[in-house]
Amino acid sequence: MPSSERSAASTAAAEVIVRMEPRVAEVTDAVRDVILAQIPELRGDTQLVQLLRASVDGNIVTIFAAIRHGIDVAGVTAPVAALEYARRLAQHDVTPNALVRAYRLGQQELLRLVFAEVRAGGLDADTALEVFEATFTATSQYIDWISEQVIEVYRLELDRWRESRERIRGEQIRRILADGADARGTEPRRVDELSTALRYPLRGHSLAVIMWYPQPVLERGELIGMERFLQFAAKKLGAAAPRCSWRTTGRRRGAGSPVR
Length: 260
Fold this sequence. Notes:
- By secondary structure, the chain is mainly α.
- It is 67% helix and 0% strand.
- It has 8 helices and no strands.
- The protein has helices spanning 3-20, 24-38, 46-69, 80-91, 96-120, 125-178, 188-198, 222-237.
- Helix 1 crosses helix 6 (125-178).
- The radius of gyration is 25 Å and the shape is elongated.
- It starts with a helix and ends in a 23-residue tail after the last helix.
- 19% of the residues are buried.
């Protein structure tokens, strides 16, 4: 396609965005509603839902500005609300797949709304197709670039959050041991109090599983994959959801493959 045609398509796409900008709040609500309807993991928590809307709004405003002014989306920084939303999902143990899927669903709904605006504008078929192609390319590049940023923030926060949680639990356990509390010899009420404090059932039997990763550095996503394996194994055994505690240790000479 000649450069003049590309320029004309970009100009037409910018004009469509200009018409949509006064309805950013309406577009944001429509995208948010589709995401919540399709991804159950993102519903329920009121603050998370509110932050989701702020994240959607920030992303749409950024995309609209990029299309309207011809900004290269590869150099765009993710909106603050989008980064914070990724951190909060990590803190709530929501899977990163849900986050990535939210971006893809959001893109689909946004493109649907843009194409509806294109049809309403009465553009000829060729120009309408060029506008849609330009918008699709811009949003796809934006989603790819921003997804990398939010997933990296998610991963770092997940590691930090789990380390903090395990440290607090370890301190609680050490206090209990320091008090000389033997759960089998204490009053039932005391056992229940300890179970609540640790968020771990002290009554009944426990099964421990030791897992390790054969490489000195965990690859991205491997820790989550190992925890999913444990959850799958627990389900097959009819056991409660596993509690995971990870530690970084020196490699043992002759260590084998991870537990499978």
